[in-house]
TrEMBL record:
Domain of life: Bacteria
Chain coiled-coil ranges: none
Native source species: Tissierella carlieri
UniProt name for this protein: SDR family oxidoreductase
Keyword Nucleotide-binding carried by entry: no
PROSITE patterns: ADH_SHORT (PS00061)
Region (Disordered): 1-32
Biological classification of the source: Bacteria, Bacillati, Bacillota, Tissierellia, Tissierellales
Alphabetized Pfam families for the sequence: adh_short_C2
Keywords associated with the record: Oxidoreductase
């Protein structure tokens, strides 16, 4: 798929995803097929014109799709990533092809000093901050809790919730009335996952963080919401699951296929736009039709 045009009939069925694995962290350019990140039949409406948005994990997967959609809506971007230089630079080129402005920042979001660096560089580059997308995450499937080491547990929580906390804390002084924070949670926060105990727990923390922060920032008129994806075809999948699991990835959804990153992007645009000014503390579930509590 070349991301030139996206229709529902183009969405990959689970059976068409070849069993494959990668070393961690995954690289989007190595995936077969590559995820669909852009709907070129939609060129944007200027809904985020001149807004400044930080997107963690914006080099690939859901983050890339959101970055491309934001660029088409007129936003100026900061893409935060950890290791995948080629994916990050590919995303930068895509954004620039839409005449978007983008700053790449590389580092570990689990480090509070790096979070402060992200905000400092953003303000120096653009002079303001309007939208914060806390999207970066990691997962490490294990067959039982006894196999989850201290190091794995700490790494998962540092990336998935500590990093989100650090970056949000650093961003708050620069956010104002009308600003928007959007966190990426997961369907696993609601129904659990037998092999992703630490990941599911961290995403449960993201959900509680979103709800509590929304209440805390309501007086400042800063909105906080989250997206809870189901199975989405991103580099996280072939880099963490075995070939057999990848081969059938997403088949257990009511729509019988995994989602593509582009199918989430519009929700992130909506929550950051003036169309969602009375929405805070809420979750949009994008999971192929599964009804989950909350």
């Amino acid at each position: 798929m070349d991301n030139k045009e996206m229709k529902d009939s183009d969405m990959y069925k689970a059976g068409e995803i070849k069993g494959q694995t990668q070393e961690k962290p995954g690289r989007e350019f190595k995936m077969e097929p590559e995820p669909i990140y852009d709907n070129k039949t939609h060129m944007g409406y200027g809904r985020l014109k001149d807004k400044v948005a930080i997107i963690t994990g914006g080099d690939s997967g859901i983050g890339r799709a959101v970055a491309v959609a934001y660029a088409k809506e007129g936003a100026n971007l900061v893409i935060v990533y950890n290791i995948a230089d080629k994916d990050a630079n590919d995303t930068k080129s895509i954004i620039e092809s839409y005449n978007g402005k983008v700053l790449l920042i590389k580092g570990d979001i689990g480090n509070s000093k790096f979070a402060e660096k992200i905000i400092d560089r953003t303000i120096k580059e653009y002079g303001k901050l309007d939208i914060l997308i806390n999207n970066a995450a990691e997962q490490h499937p294990q067959q039982g809790i006894q196999y989850i080491t201290d190091e794995q547990l700490e790494s998962t929580f540092k990336t998935n919730i500590f990093g989100m906390f650090y970056l949000t804390r650093a961003a708050i002084p620069y956010l104002s009335e009308g600003s928007s924070i959007i966190n990426t949670s997961s369907i696993t926060a609601y129904r659990g996952d037998s092999t992703l105990i630490d990941y599911s727990s961290s995403k449960g923390a993201v959900t509680s963080f979103t709800r509590s922060l929304a209440l805390n920032l309501a007086e400042k008129k800063i909105r906080v919401n989250q997206i809870a994806p189901g199975p989405i075809w991103t580099p996280l999948i072939p880099s963490t699951f075995d070939k057999a699991s990848v081969e059938i990835f997403g088949e257990n959804t009511p729509l019988k296929r995994p989602g593509q990153p582009v199918e989430l992007a519009e929700a992130y645009v909506f929550l950051a736009s003036d169309g969602a000014t009375y929405i805070s503390g809420q979750t949009i579930h994008i999971n192929g039709g599964e009804v989950v509590n909350g």
